[in-house]
Amino acid sequence: MMSRFKQLGLVLCGMCLGVLVSLQFAANANREGSATPQLPVDEVRSLADVFNHIKQLYVEPVEDKKLINDAISGMVAGLDPHSQFLDEEAFKDMQISIKGKFGGLGIEVSMEDGLVKVVSPIEDTPAFRAGIKSGDLIFKLDDTPVRGLTLTDAVKRMRGKPGTSINITIVRKGETKPLEFTLVREEIQVQSVKSKLIEPGYGYVRVAQFQEQTTADLARHLDKLYKDGPLKGLVLDLRNNPGGLIDAAVGVSAAFLPAKSLVVYSEGRIPDARRKYHAEASEYSRGSEDALKSLPKGVKTVPMVVIVNGGSASASEIVAGALQDYKRVKVLGIRSFGKGSVQSIFPIIQGQTGVKLTIAKYFTPLGRSIQAKGIDPDFQVDETPNGSSEPFYREADLTRHLANPTEQSAPAAAGSAPAAKPKNGRKPDADEPPARFEPAGAGDYQFEQAMNLLKGKPVAVVKSEVAEPVAEASQPK
């Protein structure tokens, strides 16, 4: 029996070496053009030895597939908070969610110290309506502790058939005991764009997530807003937008920028990761008809305010950063999340599974890195007159987050990013209810200040925190 496992281990070691040789040779020959570096033979042999010990000695039998998948998952998860191994179910779910329709709770999550951390609840979903907040730590799903689960496993448990329920136990900063929620899963069909005419001459557009149809949806909403005549001002709301597809972010930016403007660029180790994205139909139309070709006159020049907060991440930061660099808009709100890294999904094993791998970092047209820093608003405005009702956890708070390559000082990479300071130096009173409001509705303090800014009225900014100025470099190319 022992010799059989030893033989299996040697076979596994040989397979690993063979795969590594093939992959590494192909990667280096095709992408970097350099000689293949020496393979870590001892480390690969260690992997085979551990595999042998588990197969021979572990208290219960473990399937080979589970061991290999767990090894891959751990290897990828140890890189950064956003790289992830996708098994068959997770890979399928990822493809479905890109289209904006899936069964679940409506939470954008990441992994932090073995627990699932809420980046942002998606608007008008079970999680959002129940009061789940950015920064909540989920430590139990039904009766299963989250610690010990991979992010893929945790997401799997949260998703499911619409109509079924799940109990979620969370830890929230400022609360003395865990909070329990019973959520009923729904078909999450995110409406990526909403709009309304606030009053004659002033429009409002909210982008909740960047999906395949977001650019076309935005064009339709702008047409609707302009049907009664030109606008004097427009508010673009990106709060709690967790991001999405890069081409959708380019499309939204292109709606308001001159044709062929540089929107964002990425830098990575391989040629495919080093590219520039411009405001051109070829960059956002996915081969279909240009949804922006018949935009109403005035969209390119209408005065605009973009609202962001700590839940504005990734693609929403690309849009805010690009429009800010060109001085096309004024950005208002709280500093954004700071996810400035690029993930690509690579299918493996005949396209049944995949790996989501960080391959590059994003930069705004003026060369600012978003990573672990975010977008600083031109006007710092809290959620309420007395401050923000909840702390936002950002990229810089995540373990193993990538450093900001354009920051000279250590704080961005150190792992702690302070939340925006409240006006008058205090948070709302303990008995003050959380800020829950319909965006652009009654009680939306940031929106009220955005409208003041558009109309030339005074804006109630946070006196205790001053936004960093946008670089006064030459116009982006």
Would you summarize the structure shown here?
The protein has 477 residues and is an alpha+beta fold.
What integer value in Å does the Rg equal?
24 Å
How much of the sequence lies in strands comes to: 15-25%
Shape: globular
Uncertain ranges: 1-34, 409-435, 464-474
First-to-last CA distance: 67 Å
In CATH terms, what is the architecture of the largest domain?
Alpha-Beta Complex
Q: Report the average pLDDT across residues.
A: 82
Detail the topology: elements first, then pairings.
Elements: H1 2-32, H2 41-57, H3 64-77, E1 84-86, H4 88-98, E2 101-104, E3 107-112, E4 115-121, H5 126-130, E5 137-141, E6 144-145, H6 151-158, E7 165-171, E8 179-184, E9 186-189, E10 193-199, E11 202-207, H7 214-225, E12 233-237, H8 246-256, E13 262-268, E14 275-278, H9 281-284, E15 304-308, H10 315-325, E16 330-333, E17 341-348, E18 353-363, E19 379-380, H11 411-414, H12 445-454
Parallel strand pairs: 11-12, 12-15, 15-16, 16-19
Antiparallel strand pairs: 1-18, 2-9, 3-4, 4-5, 5-6, 5-7, 7-8, 10-11, 13-14, 13-18, 17-18
Name its key features:
disordered N terminus; globular; 2-enoyl-CoA Hydratase, Chain A, domain 1; 3 domains; 12 helices; six-stranded mixed β-sheet; Pdz3 Domain; six-stranded antiparallel β-sheet; alpha+beta; 477 residues
